[in-house]
Design a protein that fits this description.
single chain, 191 residues, alpha+beta, Umud Fragment, subunit A, 4-stranded antiparallel sheet, 3 helices, 19% helix, 28% strand, globular
Length: 191
């Protein structure tokens, strides 16, 4: 990476001040965007891009930001580096972003070839027996279950290797922090 250079000179002090100014401006813009309800997604769980928080009910097809449950599957994901530590959720985890594939009352069938919601096969939903390092993946849900009224089934429909409800089960609706809509997306799954 090329060193940051100032147009006012190439001395190390001026370059350092210029780099600091650019970094500070970027951080301020990110914070202002966050306060204004903008969220930047760089994960593969949703199309990468910029999303806006909206005041809408959680329904099938919605993008949501939620706090993952404290469970054996989530602890395993943390241990393996699939998820990252943080305090935004108050339980040592950072929020996750997923699409709601099913809401309370739906029948879920989780088989090796994929997840079916009310009999319809979801894209990119095949269960992986092992991860990229050859370690067995959890399967915490029975082959067939009906979601309770308070439950959601969340998945990625853009990345087949996403760590989602296939591996940690349904989530509670109360764990959803925000409903998001895309503003601008790019790359795989984006527009």
């Amino acid at each position: 990476m090329a060193p940051c250079r100032s147009r006012y000179g190439s001395g190390p002090r001026r370059a350092g001040i210029a780099c600091f100014g650019v970094l500070l401006a970027a951080l301020i813009l990110l914070e202002l965007g966050y306060v204004a309800g903008l969220r930047l997604n760089l994960t593969r769980s949703l199309p990468p891009g910029l999303y806006r928080v909206v005041d809408r009910p959680v329904q099938r097809g919605a993008y949501v930001r939620f706090c993952p449950p404290r469970s054996g599957s989530i602890a395993l994901a943390m241990e393996r580096g699939y998820l990252h530590e943080g305090e935004a959720c108050g339980n040592g985890y950072l929020p996750m972003l997923k699409r709601v594939a099913a809401v309370g009352g739906a029948w879920i069938s989780a088989q090796d070839d994929g997840v079916r919601v009310d009999g319809r096969l979801l894209p990119l939903s095949a269960h992986r027996a092992v991860d990229a390092a050859g370690r067995p993946m959890p399967r915490p849900v029975p082959a067939r279950l009906r979601l309770a009224p308070s439950q959601l089934w969340v998945m990625s429909d853009t990345h087949p290797l996403s760590f989602d409800s296939r591996y940690f089960g349904p989530i509670e609706r109360a764990w959803v922090m925000e409903v998001l809509v895309p503003v601008a997306t790019w790359g795989p799954g984006g527009t």
